[in-house]
Amino acid sequence: PVGRAPARGAWRQLPWPAPAVAVPLIVAIGWAFPLLGWSLLAFLVLDALLGLLHRRREGRPAAGS
Asked: Is this prediction's pTM over 0.85?
């Protein structure tokens, strides 16, 4: 009921000040709340790995073609 998640790579379409402010803010939150920081870091690493895997699979030709 909340809506769809943003498309992958949406950060790259934002104007540069948005990530320039958001990234240090996320790091500060992770530093201030270590348990949240570790789980956030794990989520971001997993999301990045899944994105790379998805991108590699899209680049391959279909089996049998």
From this structure: no
